[in-house]
Amino acid sequence: MSIRLPFTKKKRKESEPLTNTENIPNHVAIIMDGNGRWAKKRSLPRIAGHKEGVDSVVRTVRAAHKCNVNIVTLYAFSTENWKRPQKEIDFLMKLPKEFLHIHLPELMERNVRIQTIGEFDALPAHTKEAVQYAIDKTRNNDGLLLNFALNYGSRYEIVQATKQVMADIQNSKLSMDALDEEIFAKYLYTKELSDPDLLIRTSGEQRLSNFLLWQLAYTEFWFTDVYWPDFDEAVFKQAIEEYQQRQRRYGGI
Ligand code: IPE
Ligand code: IPE
Ligand code: MG
């Protein structure tokens, strides 16, 4: 499905580099929200917002690269998003291919590695194929890790992890006494990732919507009213600069 947007695209200025390069978050997680409301405001169908939101992903990669952020995790589709109308779901499931078709060369140039978290197998075949191609193609890149949460639900993740832990205890691969937080975390999709340092949610909503409940235990939260399709380097930079002022105490003093 291709849609034409009845307006000229806003020219966006690339942001200046950060003046302070200390205390950069290693891992930034983003709940990309507000595509539907962005479209509604313009009397466009919701899918126009999703389409426009693809460009925000690329701007985010550029901004993260510039700020020396190592990992960006983007919440692209939740396990609850299957409740949406089938047409909208179908459109969303075609977006990874569209995104990669246009932007994979730039991602390669920027040395970006692509990964996913979530129930990958339950995605439509054409979505899996496009994403798997990008994962394979970028496998040896060692720059920014761009991690898409696709068909991701945190409670499901935790329940699956618990089942696997119990199976391993039953098979004597793991002892009950040895089980601790660090070992439990190895059963999550995020086993190879450090916890996010900064969580951004766009569109004014201030909730987690089943995103990384375990991993966000000590993450700094930053909310903006900006709808995802309007997200740009300047907004990303603003979030980083505010993060740089935060004091993380992890329960200490
Ligand atoms: C975020 O935008 C994209 C996805 C959840 C897939 P929404 O589609 O949730 O937009 P709003 O929240 O309805 O404005
Ligand atoms: C969260 O946004 C999921 C993604 C951004 C993929 P939703 O728009 O689905 O969240 P709720 O329903 O407003 O909590
Ligand atoms: Mg939403």
TrEMBL record:
GO molecular function: ditrans,polycis-undecaprenyl-diphosphate synthase [(2E,6E)-farnesyl-diphosphate specific] activity; magnesium ion binding; manganese ion binding
GO cellular component terms, A-Z: cytosol
EC number: 2.5.1.-
Keyword Endoplasmic reticulum: no
Keyword Metal-binding recorded: yes
Binding of Mg(2+), residues: 33, 220
Transmembrane feature ranges: none
PROSITE patterns listed in its UniProt record: UPP_SYNTHASE
Keywords assigned: Magnesium, Metal-binding, Transferase
Active site: 33, 81 (proton acceptor)
Oligomer status and interactors: Homodimer.
Protein purpose: Catalyzes the condensation of isopentenyl diphosphate (IPP) with allylic pyrophosphates generating different type of terpenoids.
Family indicated by similarity: Belongs to the UPP synthase family.
Protein name: Isoprenyl transferase
Originating species: Virgibacillus pantothenticus
